Amino acid sequence: MSNVQSAMGTGVNEMDMLDMGELFGEEQAQEPVKAGPGMSMFRDVPLTVTLEVASTEVTLGELSDAEAGDVLPLDKAVGEPLDVKVNGVLFAKAEVVMVNGKYGLKFVSTRREQKTDA
User: Fold this and answer.
1) Which residues neighbour 82 within 8 Å (Cβ) at sequence distance 6 or greater?
2) What are residue 89's DSSP bridge partners?
3) What does the alpha-carbon distance between residue 91 and residue 64 come to, in Å, rounded to a whole number?
4) Structural domain boundaries in the chain
5) Which residues pair with 52 in a beta bridge?
């Protein structure tokens, strides 16, 4: 949680969170990069972005015995970056931040970066 608290106190504003080029470590071009003729038609395709905190496997019996107040341990350590999935496919790792009183995501790595590091 210390990452969340430190990000909340840094005064992150909405414009900082929306500059995706900086988040992904891309150099900003002098002129805007234009999408190729074949890609422009996909710009308005809606995508579902999901933040996966963690997961675990339980049996149907264990889950059906769960009651209010029970705790289910998960498989991710506290402070570890969370999985960002786009339409169910892993896209990036991120930390949760606050943006104008709402939750936001600060990308710490993307799938593209993970592939080049491998």
Assistant:
1) 51, 52, 53, 54, 76, 93, 94, 95, 96
2) 86
3) 32
4) 2-24+44-65+73-117
5) 83
Which value, in Å, is the radius of gyration of the alpha carbons in the chain? 18
Tens of pLDDT along 9-31?
Answer: 444 434 344 445 444 455 544 45
pLDDT digit string, tens, across residues 24-50: 455 544 454 455 567 788 889 999 999
- Separation in Å, CA 22 to CA 19, 28, 38, 52: 6, 8, 25, 23
Please report, to the nearest 10 degrees, the dihedral formed by the alpha carbons of residues 5, 50, 41, 19 taken in order. Answer: 10
**Amino acid at residue number 110:** T
| CATH, domain range 2-24+44-65+73-117 | 2.30.330.10
CA distances from 97 to 17, 55, 108 (A): 9, 21, 12
Residue 81's CB is within 10 A of a number of other CB atoms, namely 16
Q: DSSP class of residue 70? A: -
Structure tokens at 106: 């600060």
Taking the C-alpha atoms of residue 75 and residue 55, their distance in angstroms, rounded to an integer, is 6
